[in-house]
Design a protein that fits this description.
about 290 residues, six-stranded mixed sheet, 6 helices
Length: about 290
């Protein structure tokens, strides 16, 4: 007989990088864009069989065509749970006039935001804020992005890639303030972003070092969840687990998604398809 201690406080679903488009596959990159509709439908069916607080997609809902939202968002509409999104680089591979419309098309409250569930604060970042592709033409963040990228290239950084981005200083300050507010409220923090920050990888956020230093400096910051690097990854610094989920768009027929069971003393990631299952102990247990 299982005790109440074995039951999670709550559960949530994770999807990473569907990158849907009604285009031919790129076999060399192992990406099958049109197949993501069926894969997402399969994930939705599994999610609907569970009691979930929400389902988060970790960016790259589409690839390159704004009208692709018209095909994939109705699949999300079949969810009986709250569906939440954050922004990925491929979501901005749309004609320039649509760049300001992406977050709104996903019904996001803002490009970055936070929310709380059962003693946990989820902080959702916009890693595209300072990039060479997401800000509108002529925006100061485009100039700043070019400067940051040039400096990283000069330093020989492996993540000095045009497909990555970074946080504006105001967003980074907001992240720090949210972490402090969560501490004052007795909440455990889980951060979500499209871009990984650890272990070091060519797909990492340009300002990965300051993000890792901030998160690992707080014992109540439990995890950082991301996509973007489609093969997945995992690392830990201090109390913070860094989990990179595999990309749904990859492979012709294999799926990948996850359900996270949140316990007072651990996160149990249940991987489906190619996604790995993991048990992540929490250093600072949350109160039920």
């Amino acid at each position: 007989m299982s005790s109440s201690a074995d039951l999670p406080l709550f559960r949530f679903g994770i999807v990473a990088d569907p990158q849907y488009a009604a285009i031919e596959p790129h076999a060399g990159m192992n990406r099958y864009y049109a197949r993501s509709l069926g894969k997402l439908a399969e994930a939705v069916e599994i999610f609907n069989g569970e009691e979930l607080s929400f389902v988060m997609t970790l960016g790259d809902v589409i690839d390159g065509r704004f009208e692709s939202f018209d095909d994939i968002l109705p699949v999300y509409g079949r969810l009986r749970h709250e569906s939440l999104f954050l922004l990925g680089n491929h979501d901005f591979a749309v004609p320039a006039p649509h760049l300001p419309d992406v977050a709104g098309r996903l019904s996001m409250p803002a490009p970055y935001y936070s929310f709380s569930r059962h003693g946990f604060r989820f902080i959702v970042l916009d890693g595209n804020e300072v990039s060479t592709f997401a800000p509108p033409e002529g925006h100061p963040f485009r100039t700043l992005a070019a400067d940051r990228l040039a400096a990283l290239r000069e330093a020989g950084a492996i993540n000095a890639q045009t497909w990555n981005g970074s946080l504006g200083d105001a967003q980074f300050a907001w992240l720090g303030a949210e972490i402090e507010a969560a501490k004052a409220a007795g909440e455990t923090v889980i951060v979500m972003n499209h871009y990984p920050v650890f272990p070091p990888n060519e797909h990492d956020l340009w300002d990965r070092e300051r993000v890792v230093a901030l998160l690992s400096g707080h014992v109540h910051v439990a995890a950082y969840l991301c996509g973007h690097n489609h093969v997945g990854n995992y690392g830990r610094v201090g109390a913070c687990h860094f989990v990179n989920f595999k990309g749904m768009v990859d492979t012709e027929n294999e799926n990948t998604f996850a359900i996270v069971d949140v316990h007072a003393d651990r996160l149990e990631i249940r991987g489906f398809g190619r996604e790995e299952s993991r048990t992540l102990p929490l250093q600072a247990p949350a109160l039920p």
